[in-house]
Amino acid sequence: QVQLQESGPGLVKPSQTLSLTCTVSGVSISSGSVYWSWLRQPAGKGLEWIGRVHSTGNSDHNPSLRSRVTISMETSKNQFSLNLNSVTAADTAIYYCAREGMIVGLYAIDNWGQGTLVTVSS
Amino acid sequence: DIQMTQSPSSLSASVGGRVTITCRASQSISRYLNWYQHKPGKAPELLIYTASSLQSGVPSRFSGSGSGTVFTLTISSLQPEDFATYYCQQSYTTPRSFGQGTKLEIK
End-to-end distance of chain A based on CA atoms, in angstroms? Predict the structure, then answer.
């Protein structure tokens, strides 16, 4: 059974870098054709896709976040990470890590972490 | 980017009732459409993938249909545990995008 758990600071100051780690258990993050993703949900709003890293290490992200996003893998620890720099209050949200796996040839987000609240405030 | 629009944004229904949620894409996404259920304080759960396929373990009272730009999620015989927020999501291209959500409340 695949399980994902987010970890990282719950409070980040404006203009600094938000750093989160997702620890995966039950499967190797470097196996299969799978994407390891980050999403977020600001209070009272819907889900926003931040970006993802493929099991081979290639990553892509939402252009709306410009070049503030870096997503990377650390296969030795079976973890992947999110760095979001130059944060503002608009980045305050619940952050989810998730797995986007292939089901019958198409991709869907089939496993999610519980989410972690990150507040941007001085 | 592909915009996803859900309607209604909220609705109330009774246990045992039937509801339908509509999701529209700003361009054709074939059948690359997934539905998720989200309860407060919990992780979202995949209900339906490729527009109409039920994820393993999801009750058969959930069903999905559609292709191209218009999709629907129907829940028949509503159970107390079904009251939640539902999101559609396109997996046709990146950036992935979600509808704004439909909050289903008990009448």
Answer: 39
| pLDDT bucket at A105, cuts 50 / 70 / 90 | confident
Q: What percent of chain B has a predicted confidence (pLDDT) above 70? A: 100
B61: DSSP letter: T
Read off the pLDDT of residues B41-65 as tens digits, 9 standing for 90 and up.
899 999 999 999 999 999 999 999 9
Residues with Cβ < 8 Å from A84, sequence gap 6 or more?
A17, A18, A19, A50, A65, A68, A69, A91
Mean pLDDT of A81-95: 98
Tokens 């990377």, residue?
A72
Minimal-distance CA residue of chain A relative to B101: A46
Tokens (6 digits) for A52: 């993802």
Cα A55 to Cα A32: distance, rounded to the nearest angstrom: 7
Across the beta sheet with A79-84, the strand order is A3-7, A18-25, A79-84, A69-74
Helix locations, B1-107, DSSP H:
none
Interface of B with A in 53-72 (CB under 8 A): 53, 55
